Amino acid sequence: xxxxxxxxxPPSGQDDQPDRPQxxxxxxxxxxxxxxxxxxxxxxxxxxxxxxxxxxxxFVPSLYRFATLMSLSIAIAxxxxxxxxxxxxxxxxxxAPLMTPILAFxxxxxxxxxxxQLRAALVTMAASxxxxxxxxxxxxxxxxxxxxxxxxxxxxxxxxxxDMGVALAAGAAGAYVLVRTRAGAALPGVAIAVALxxxxxxAGALLAHGxxxxxxxxxxxxxxxxxxxxxAASLVFLLTGFVPQARSLSHSRxxxxxxxxxxxxxxxxxxxxxxxxxxxxxxxxxxxxxxDAAEAFLEQNDPETVVLSTDVNDSVDPTExxxxxxxxxxxxxxxxxxxxxxxxxxxxxxPISLRVRYTPTVVATSSDADRSADVLGAGxx
Length: 381
Prior knowledge:
By secondary structure, the chain is of the alpha+beta class.
C-alpha cells in the first residue's frame, strides 16, 4: 500500500478529500450541533488513528499479529465453552482483537473514508468466517460425538433486546476509551462487555455438530454485537470531537447517510431479538401458569407432593406439558392426571397433552429401588 496515496494519519483527517470550509460551510461553523464540543487536537487524533489503521509498511506485520491473536482467542473461547468454564471464556474476550477493525469501520464511516471503510469491513468479514471455521474444527477435534450443550453455550443461543443494549453501551465505551486515552484503564472491562468472540465460537462449534437452530441464535447475538458497536462507536467518534469541525460540516450528508444506514441495520437486527424475547416471555408465563395450577391441584388432593419442574412445549399439537412431582405417596392415578389435564387446559386456553413424572421421596430399599413413574393424560375443550 502506497502511503503517499493513502496516508494512515492525514494532517486534517482527510482521505483524498479536502476539509477546508468554503462559502456557506464556513458560515455554518458554530451553529451545528456536530461542532458544539471539544475537538481533539491533531496529536490526539493521530494517536487514535494509529491504533485503528495499519497501513504502509506496518500493514502486513499488523495483519499477521491480528490473525494470530484472533486464532488464539477463538481457540481459548471454544475450549472454554466446551468445558463450561466462564473464566476461560473471559480470557478469550480479553485477547480478542476483533474490536479493532470494527471500530476502524465506525471511524471510517464518520470520517467519510470509503477505502478504509471497505478495508475494515473485509478484515472483519474474513476474521468472522475464519473464526467460525476454526471453532468448528477445534470442536470436532475435542468432542468426536455431539458436544454437551453446556451453560456457557446455551447462554449465547437466545439473545434478546437486552443484548442489543449491552452492545450499544459496550461499543460506545470502546470508542470513548480509544479517544480519551486517560480512560484506558477501563479497556479490559470493555473487552469483556463486548463479547464478540464467544458467540462466534459458539456458532462455529454448533454448526460443526449440526445444531443449526441453536447456531442461528449465536450468530444473531454476534450480529447484534457487531451492528450495535458500529452505530454506538460512530456516534461517540462524532460527539467527542474525533471528526474535525470543518469535515463534519463539509461531509455532513455522507455522515448522516452512514449513521442512518447503521441505524437501519440495528433496527433490522432488533426485530428478531424482540420476537425471541417475546417467545421467552410467553414460555416463562406459560410455565408459571402450569406451576400455579399444579400446586393448586396438589394442595387440594395431595398436599405432601411438591412440584419439582414444569415444561411447556407449544411446538407440537396439542401442546405438551410435562410436570415433575415428588412426594411420599404413590404416583397419581390416571383419573387424577386426566382431571389435572382438564384444569390445565382451561388455564392455558388450549388443548394439551399432560405427562407427569413422579419421584418418590421415601428411602429406597434393594427390593424397590426404582419407584419412579410416568403417567400420561390429556385435556381439551
